[in-house]
Amino acid sequence: MPIKLEKIDTWIVDIPTIRPHVLSMTSISKQVMMLVRISFSDGSVGLGEGTTIGGLAYGDESPEGMKLAIDRYFAPLLIGRDGSEPAALMAILRSQIVGNHFAMHAVETALLDAAARRAGLPLSALLGGARQQRLPVLWTLASGDTGRDIEEAEAMLAARRHDTFKLKIGKRTMPEDVAHVAAIKRALGDRGSVRVDVNQAWDRITARKGAQMLADAGVDLIEQPLPRDDRLGMARLTASSPIAIMADEALRGPRDALEFVRDSAAHAFSLKPAQAGGLSAARDVAAIARAGHIGLYGGTMLEGGIGTTASAHLFASLPELEWGTELFGPLLQTEEILVEPLVYRDFALEVPTGPGLGVELDMDKVEHLRRDGPSRTVTGPSARENV
Ligand SMILES: [Mg+2]
């Protein structure tokens, strides 16, 4: 008997962060995620997540926009169809809907989750199988304050939770940023690796100078220093920089990956399933990187438990992950929405091994935190906060 795709639920959930997260283009104090649950006629369900960094400050999809796209355009294309073959359903979506990578990712995750649950296998098995069960996870220091960042890094080292740190820079002048980074690297010494993420804030000449100064300060890598459309600038910087240059915002799927390889425009890719357009597209990006001798890093959109776990299954299945991962999203959030929280121990995330994603949503929590939930009906001034 075919398994019919019966229903797609989507929710917007707001979760405050443990501290302000300061990036070059925005500062966030809460994370907004779009959760999707797909239900099938055999009683199986699948979960997915679409999350961005700072609404529309980072990319061209927002959680609210994803919800609208799925409710209004994705769902009618899927409901009533045989739900047992995720690739066939994704092909239908891709033939009718342009772009919408984050929403595509959320839906594909839910389809794969349900398929893996029905098979009694972890999601990674549908991606070729896990090569490792523990993924190294770095921590992002983004308070904007040098002393506070050093304290935070020391606490993470003492708790054996993280020994690699990424600093968000680009908001201040380059020399001010380098002084901030250098002070942190000096304090940590050989006990911690330090990288920076400029989030596109520099121009070519600043990046050229900055790369040398950061190299002198002992920094290992610079993430997306230049605007995402300046691939020639990235290529020139990659050729001249003494330390690794990573592409992030500029990578929006396999075609971008191919062009970066062709132009030798990065030493490393930040692999983000949402940006790529789903787990299978991200796997294609990884294959192109590997063929082009580009190192891989498991990136995050600061997703919560569902999106983080989806990425973890993909990253665990890759042949190489030279730069580790930044799958710390749930640790930045003040509320846990999973029944069993993800386990972070000894500088790594343990990839869940149960069927599907291997995690369950705490639906009481979701009901409480969802924006249009019974306890959260938004009226008056707080409606503005949620924009
Ligand atoms: Mg980045």
Keywords:
disordered C terminus; alpha/beta; globular; 387 residues; TIM Barrel; three-stranded antiparallel β-sheet
Describe the structure.
The protein has helices at 63-78, 86-96, 101-119, 123-126, 146-158, 174-188, 204-216, 231-240, 254-262, 273-276, 279-291, 305-317, 363-369, 381-385; strands spanning 5-22, 27-40, 45-51, 134-136, 139-141, 164-168, 193-197, 221-223, 244-247, 268-271, 295-298, 344-345, 348-350. With 387 residues, the protein is an alpha/beta fold. It starts with a strand and ends with a helix. Helix 2 packs antiparallel against helix 3 and helix 5 (146-158) packs parallel to helix 6 (174-188). The chain has two domains: 5-121 and 362-375, Enolase-like, N-terminal domain (Enolase-like, domain 1); 126-350, Enolase-like C-terminal domain (TIM Barrel, Alpha-Beta Barrel), CATH 3.20.20.120. It contains 14 helices and 13 strands. The strands form three sheets. Strands 5-6-7-8-9-10-11 form a seven-stranded parallel beta sheet. Strands 1-2-3 form a three-stranded antiparallel beta sheet. The protein has a three-stranded antiparallel beta sheet with strand order 4-13-12, with helices on one face. Bound molecules: magnesium ion. Magnesium ion binds at residues 197, 199, 223-224, 248, 270.
